[in-house]
Amino acid sequence: MGFSTVQCNEFVEVLASKAPVPGGGGASALVGAVGTALGNMVGSLTVGKKKYADVEEEMWSLKSKADTLQKELLNLIERDAEVFEPLAKAYGMPRETEEEKAEKARVMEIVLKDACSVPMEIMEKCCDALDLIVEFAAKGSALAISDAGVGAVFCKAALQGASLNVYINTKSMKNREYAEELNQKADAMLAKYTKLADEVFESVLGRLK
């Protein structure tokens, strides 16, 4: 199933079921794509307006970047499902004998790395999206700033959601040096970009109230 192309109600129904995918990672990618699109919407409502002629070129550039990020995040819904399947199978491998235990441990290290790679990428894309939303909020149409604020909140949620999918996998890794390297990257993104998202939200809130 192409989870990025099914109807919204179908995606939500499958998400609510006991099916292993989509899960938190795929849902985070979708929320990130929606958040990015909300920022992009601000750009769409800004271009072509005489009042914002001085930022027209910049808005088109931001919109182009947002277009790419939206597609990449939607693709990551599918990728997250793809990397989870081998992980689920690995958890079910037998470990009765020493040989089976060793083989399971070997396979687990491989699939855990793959399972971490997608939520890490989702996090990175959400950070990129938040950088764009900062600009959309600051320079875009004042009539659409609420959408920029919602976009920032969504991208923050997607960032935090994806981080939990990183941490649950690094927790199981035997290679602690590699696990800590990933954790530190995730920590750094959370520290910088949740703060940035909050700043956008507070700024928008202040302009609306």
From TrEMBL:
Record protein name field: Cyclodeaminase/cyclohydrolase family protein
Domain Cyclodeaminase/cyclohydrolase: residue ranges: 8-187
InterPro entries for this protein: Cyclodeamin/CycHdrlase, Formintransfe-cycloase-like_sf
A molecular function GO annotation: catalytic activity
Pfam families recorded: FTCD_C
Span of the signal peptide: none
Organism: Lientehia hominis
Lineage: Bacteria, Bacillati, Bacillota, Clostridia, Lachnospirales
